[in-house]
Amino acid sequence: MKQKSINISADHPKMWKQIFWGVFALAAIIAVFGLLSTLPRQNYDNNYEAWLNSFDALIKAGKIFPGWVKTFWYEHGSPLFVFYPPLFFYLAEIPRLLGLSLVMSVKIVVILSTLGAFFSMYWLGRELSGKWGGLIAGLIYLTAPHHFALIYTRGAFAENLAYAIFPLIIFFIYKLFHDKSWKYIIGLAVSGAALIMTNLPSLLLFGVFVLFWTIGLVIIYKKFPLSPILISGIGALGLSAFYWLPVIINMSLVQTYRFISGNYSFSNYFVSLPQLFDPTRWGMQDYFQLGWVSILIVAIIIYYLVLRPVDKEASNNRLVIMFLISLFIILLLITRISSPVWSAVHILQYIQFPFRFLCVVFILVALLAAYLGCIAKPIWRVVLLILLFAQAIFFAQPVWPFLPDIYKQDFAYTTYGDIGAQYILKPGEKKHEDGVPLHLVFHTAEAGYMPNAVNKQDLHDEFNANDAIKLVGLSLAEAATYTVSVDRKIISTGVISNFKETPTGASFNYSNPSTSRVTYRQLAFPGWKVWIDGQTTAWTPNNNHISFIVVAGGGSHDIKITYTNPPGAVAGRSISLLFALLLVIFVSIKKRRSIGYR
Q1: What does the pLDDT look like over 443-453, one tens digit per residue?
Q2: Contact criterion met (CB below 8 Å) for 121 and 169
């Protein structure tokens, strides 16, 4: 769908640059202006600051690959970073290590990923429909109502990062159908690895779309670059193995059913037709609109395709038809009519919310808009830009900081249905600069990572208990002989001294004239290691796995307890390191050869 007509970019490159950067600047202001005062206070957003706080502490403690978070789940710990994709936090850790605040570190990644969506879609749209097509595609993708909802309504910052990666993967797959260059193979591998490490539901739903996208390209171009795509896929898996290999190995140990049941069941999140097409329904709990400009674009494309076919190249028409068919199928998946499909295809249920497919909807709308920008006359391109800006302002203005709204409220407890977070302030702990407590004790989004034997209510009851009976499940007679450390981390019959706590565990001196049990109040999960006087010692789960026990012989002992690595972590990291080294070596060789040819 390359543009054939004379346009501003061809005849007036300086003017084109002014138009491009002017459109981008205005769109960027509209999209991120609501983030300039503070972060929105909805659903997951507070958690990113609390999660980054824990991630930062682990990094500074020398854990390059963070895993266990001790303070979560009512201070029993959580394997959060064993399972949760880490890319957002690695990116946010860069400004954090440079001395910026937690809020500013999160905000920088959110803003850059938001703006990155414009450029990734621009490159894809330009490849398919020329520069004007790319510009219009980038604008509609950046200012899509769903994009604003990701940031300001749901606070789904990792999904927002994935939203910026999607067009890159589509771009590299498309390029490999025409050019099997290594730069596109590497680009697909790196962008694929980035998506794997960003957000699992987004990875799953986008995988569904990529499958149909690739099949469509095979039908249109009657060829399939199997080897380049296979190499890219292996490269993506290799680069991200440090994350996904421990996830796969340990997934059977946690309550993954929580991700697809109860309030997370897909049946609760279908979108109705009024929600899609009625802009007056836009609001905090109703943010599924397509936007009237998007509907207009699709209608015009259908009109041109059916009544006034202007593109003589058959492959271009087939691409547009593929976009329209895909759009129709995806819209069906979002509505309740597709419920039997969601029930039958079990893996789809891990996407959780059918409305998440709206990101794919706006990819397709952006590509259709790119085609329209390609075939339209210059005056209609300008009209389209004006309409898109008007729509963007309509959907974005409720979150701008100078307007009264609920986004700036300081929630210590936020809810979205039954999805919620609970925070506490420990004695002497202060809120950070924008008033959000960082001590997150429980969030239902993490419940699927809870070990199988653990019950949330047990954690809650034990957290609020002040006696050893409830803390470690002892009988009344046993509890009478036990003592609890000041911070309630260690329960034993001996004397505890020189207690030192770190983000990864604790160390202390323990004295008891006879052999006794020492209970450490962290969830029993693979990866914990205990050393007594420098010797590795086995531990056993206790009280439904909400703590674990080590047995110390009589006398005085130095005990160290540390969360090291979950099963599969060392193998995954070795694989990722190997693939990263191979990538660096290959790129270096290619670069030297290209310099030599010059």
Answers
A1: 545 666 888 88
A2: no
Distance CA(213)–CA(170), nearest Å, equals 8
Which residue ranges of the chain lie beneath pLDDT 50? 2-10, 43, 45, 404-437, 439, 441-442, 444, 466-486, 597-598
Q: Which residues pair with 122 in a beta bridge?
A: none
Of 179, 181, 183, 176, the C-alpha closest to 214 is 176
Q: Is the entire prediction scored with pTM above 0.90?
A: no
- Per CATH, domain 459-563 is 2.40.50: no
Domain residue limits, the chain: 8-408, 459-563
CB 31, CB 392: distance < 8 Å = yes
Residue type, 83: F
Asked if 263 and 418 count as a contact pair (C-beta separation under 8 A), the reply is: yes
Residues 436/410, Cβ–Cβ less than 8 Å:
yes
Strand (E) or helix (H) holding 584 = helix 569-597
Rounded CA gap, 47 and 20, in Å?
Answer: 36
**Which residues, other chains included, contact 449 with Cβ-Cβ below 8 Å and sequence gap of 6+?**
78, 79, 80, 82, 83, 84, 254, 255
pLDDT of residue 415: 29
